[in-house]
Amino acid sequence: MKKFVCIKNAVIFAFTLTTLQTIWFQSMIWKSPRNIKSVMEQQSSKKILDIPGVEIISQSGPDVISKSTVNVTDSAVKDTRSTDETKEGTTNTAESVHENFRRTDAANNAESIHENIKSMDGTSEKNPTYTTESVHQNIKSTNETSGSRTNIVEGIHENIKSTDEPNKSTNNITETADKLIEMSALTNTSTNNITENTDIDTENTNFELLSSGETWQYNPGVILDPKPRNRLIKSILDSLDELYKKRANKSREQLGLNGAMMFGPDFYTQPMDLFKNSDWWVKSKRLPGLLVIGVQKCGTGALKNFLNAHPNMASSPGEHHFFNTFYRESHVDEKIKLKDQILDVYLPSMPKTAENVMAFDKTPEYFDMSDPLHIYRMNPRIKLIIVICDPVRRSQSSYAHHYSAERYTESYLKYAISKNGSVNTEESFIFRGRYDKALERYLAIFPREQILILDKAYFKTHPLLVMNQVESFLNIPKFFTRYMFYYDGKYGYFCLAYTPWGFRGGCQGKGKYNTHAVLAEDVVKKLQLYYKPFNDRFMDLAGSEYQSLIYQDINGTEFEKHTLWNSKYSNTYDNTKTVAF
Ligand SMILES: Nc1ncnc2c1ncn2[C@@H]1O[C@H](COP(=O)(O)OS(=O)(=O)O)[C@@H](OP(=O)(O)O)[C@H]1O
């Protein structure tokens, strides 16, 4: 009897073990079929972020020194630099792979990675020789100082003077002390020729670039982890690999797996190679490849929520506000260098991500309260998304937000309309609805192709199409389907239903759906007339029209037909240089 119980227990134990293993592998594949596809793509062809006009030639992989050359056509800015990067490898366990896909914002190991990445720029010396008068002048001419707003012009000017450095080329391959760690280094020699931009001085511009924009696409090739547990897991995977290799020559039909699509198409035929030879599970702190820069109260939270569900995207927690708080003009006065701030403050706050996962930060204040040049210096090829919305509705939303936080106690009208009946342009929830200047400042620094402008009106009604557009823009695998969104009648918005790795959907917190003050028709009209010229100018600069920015009267007729390429602005901006999306 005792023997029978023992056997029974052994059978149960074996069965449980097998089931768990199956579930584990299945979940890995099931959870991220596209992710794996993109990993394999990456392995085979090293396909990297496609920016129009960018050609990237790269060789990289485990234990190799990889060189990359980035050539962007129509060069206006030239920067040659070399970075040397030595990163500690992390071979993750199954758990940590799961962790990775859940994209928790674990801060552990930040220090060591920070240190490693710090060494990347450790060779730069102080040598301020910056002379971009024209950029300075240009930004000066377009910048607006209004009411309590901080004057960014001076900051840019000061910053350029104090922090810019000539580029240096140095190749270092650092060895870590830990003998257990097998390591490799990435020596990355990049030549960036940024797409022609009317506002950057082609002659004198010599930016210090913290990164060449490849932080998330490249894996430095470090594989082994010093942790004994992880090494053990790796050795188990290696031995399992042998087992699976025997099956590799057999077709799916021979294995009788035709119907077993739930395991993913390649799991049985090229199983462990995928895990063993790939770096996709090695997580590191990476600088963002995307910033959602605004506009405040235009649905940026929903965009972040949706995007965060994508297996190739991972946001930093909350809103970081790095470029509008940690690194602002005041810091420039204190001679705090942008590079140091990015490495000391910004990078450690990023989520640890695998190589094919793009970190991103959504902070609406980047649009109108920070300096695009700082962002450019961190990553000249960073992608930027701006969600715009009707500035009148935005002002209501912003007021409601402040009111509920008890920052405002009076009625909307008390703040929005001055005593003489005109629009109170000093009020922040009013003037922040003027989008044109902020866009102009970004276009003075970044090529239009790097900026995606979304309209909240369309985003609200067509979340799937917008998210698909975002996927194309970011050049990440298509992931969103219509089943991932549901319409929530309570809030009147689409919310995230679920992702293939579990129910983690739902709407945002209640604070995101505020009841608006009801405005009288004449007030709405007054505000619309105030915003109209700024809206029109924004559309001219963007090279596209947006439903939210075209006002109609009560009969549904547009106030005054907005025409693209409005000649009255042609003296301030060369419209022919913009690209319509
Ligand atoms: N799915 C979806 N699509 C479009 N818009 C949505 C969505 N979900 C929420 N919202 C609306 O977004 C408004 C809040 O914007 P933000 O998230 O940008 O606010 S914040 O700046 O981060 O505080 C806020 O607008 P108002 O309702 O007008 O206040 C939200 O209702």
Automatic annotation (TrEMBL):
The active site is at K297 (for sulfotransferase activity). Residues 76-97 are annotated as: Disordered. InterPro entries: NST/OST (IPR037359), P-loop_NTPase (IPR027417), Sulfotransferase_dom (IPR000863). 3'-phosphoadenylyl sulfate binds at S397, K512, Y513, N514, T515, H516. Signal peptide: none annotated. It holds the Pfam family Sulfotransfer_1. Disulfide bonds join C495-C507. Keywords: Disulfide bond, Glycoprotein, Transferase. GO terms for molecular function: [heparan sulfate]-glucosamine 3-sulfotransferase activity. Residues 290-477 form the Sulfotransferase domain. Residues 76-88 have a biased composition (Basic and acidic residues). This is Sulfotransferase domain-containing protein. It comes from Owenia fusiformis. The lineage of its organism: Eukaryota, Metazoa, Spiralia, Lophotrochozoa, Annelida.
